[in-house]
Amino acid sequence: MKERLQELQTEALNKVNEAEEIQDLKDVRVKYLGKKGPITEVLRGMGKLSKEERPVIGQLANDVREEIAQAIEEKQSRLEEAALEKQLEAESVDVTLPGRPVEVGGPHLLTSIVEEIEDLFIGMGFEIKEGPEVETDYYNFEALNLPKGHPARDMQDSFYITEELLLRTHTSPVQARTMGVKNGSEPVKMICPGKVYRRDTDDATHSHQFTQIEGLLVDKHVRMSDLKGVLNTFAKQMFGAEREIRLRPSFFPFTEPSVEMDISCKMCGGAGCSVCKGTGWIEILGAGMVHPNVLEMAGYDPTEYSGFAFGMGPERIAMLKYGVDDIRNFYINDQRFLKQYHKA
Ligand code: 2NL
Q1: How far is the centre of ligand 1, averaged over its atoms, from the C-alpha of 266 (Å)?
Q2: Nearby residues of 284 by Cβ (< 8 Å), 6 or more positions away
Q3: How far apart are CA 134 and CA 36, in angstroms?
Q4: Alpha-helical regions (H) of 123-213
């Protein structure tokens, strides 16, 4: 019996040694230490032994059991450690690899242009004002010397919500509203950027929605030379110190007299090229002295107060500054177009 037990021990320990997987160890445990295993069997046969032999064999059987169990446990923890090691190796992160590039966004070209223009006028003491895009007929037209039935309304056909409500066709109503709350006795020095709407068919140079920036200065003793000085400063800061400006007579219902401002062409230096269509000048904006009717409707005495106003399209400014040939580029949000104007 003693030899049988020692044989079993050697056999089991060899199997433990050879085990490569946790499952192999489980098999060894079931096979040698299980209820139906050979050691249990030896213990069951103890009844046949003499009184002297019984405790010796009993002790030996227990020792063998203990020995095998311990060997299994040790081997198991070694196998588990190796498995963990292998898993950690497989899941390791190489911190020396370069990072994934982050997509950096930036302001839309139109936003940048509007903010640039805002900054220039803030530098000259103007404040920024905003107002509603759904406007009343009164503020969009009547307060600007465009009474119902005026032929100039045709040039600014709009999207009507009711007879009296429409999407604003220009940002001028913001200025009419601002003047309206001054009780006819305070100066105004403002610009108003924003979206405007006209009933137009979209093409390379027209859009049913576009952006406008208008400016207004009302005070006592405001003269056309003040307008010229402000516009000249703006043109040189926006397009370059070497640019000249030129004012041509024009017509707007809300200004009298009215002018259009050109800047000298940078491409040809004034000689005439395809950008300026051979004239040497490029049209930038419209302006004029605020019509007495407009001042009066806003509550100012036109014999005491005077003012100048101007209006420009940031899309046009951006197209000229960057050579963009289709206004629709501003609205279709093609990243290949927009990304070119993201500043580093
Ligand atoms: C243009 C021309 C202009 C104005 C806008 C204005 C506003 C008030 C009173 C008088 Cl409240 N005038 N605005 C004046 C002249 C021209 O815009 O070509 N815009 C794109």
Answers
A1: 26
A2: 235, 261, 262, 263, 312, 316, 317, 320
A3: 91
A4: 137-140, 172-180
CA distances from 317 to 63, 124, 178, 211, 312 (A): 97, 19, 26, 11, 8
Contacts of residue 141, Cβ cutoff 8 Å, sequence gap at least 6: 147, 148, 150, 153
Q: How many A from CA of 271 to the centre of ligand 1?
A: 30
User: Is residue 311 in contact with ligand 1, taking CB distance under 6 Å?
Assistant: yes
- Flag whether pLDDT at 175 surpasses 80: yes
Is 211 near ligand 1, meaning CB less than 6 Å away? no
Question: Coil, strand, or helix at residue 246?
Answer: strand
Supply the pLDDT for residue 63.
85
φ, ψ (nearest 5 deg) of residue 136: -85, 155
Q: Which two tokens mark 159?
A: 């999207």
The rounded Cα 40 to chain-centroid distance in angstroms is 76
Cα 113 to averaged position of ligand 1 atoms, centre (Å)? 19
**Rounded average pLDDT over 182-202:** 95
> Which segments within 168-280 are labelled E, that is strand?
188-197, 209-220, 245-252, 255-264
**Peptide linkage before 193 cis (omega within 30 of 0):** no
Distance 162 CA to ligand 1 centre (A): 25
pTM: 0.74
Residue among 255, 291, 300, 320 to mutate when testing ligand 1 (max atoms within 8 A of CB): 255
Beta bridge partners of 259: 249, 287
Q: Round to whole Å and give the CA distance between 312 and 284.
A: 7
172 lines ligand 1 (CB under 6 A): yes
Query: Residue 71: its pLDDT value, please?
Result: 85
CA-CA distance, 224 to 90, in Å (whole number)? 78
Q: Tokens in use for 63? A: 């020792």
Work out the mean pLDDT of the chain and round it to a whole number.
92
Question: How many whole angstroms separate alpha carbon 18 and alpha carbon 282?
Answer: 91
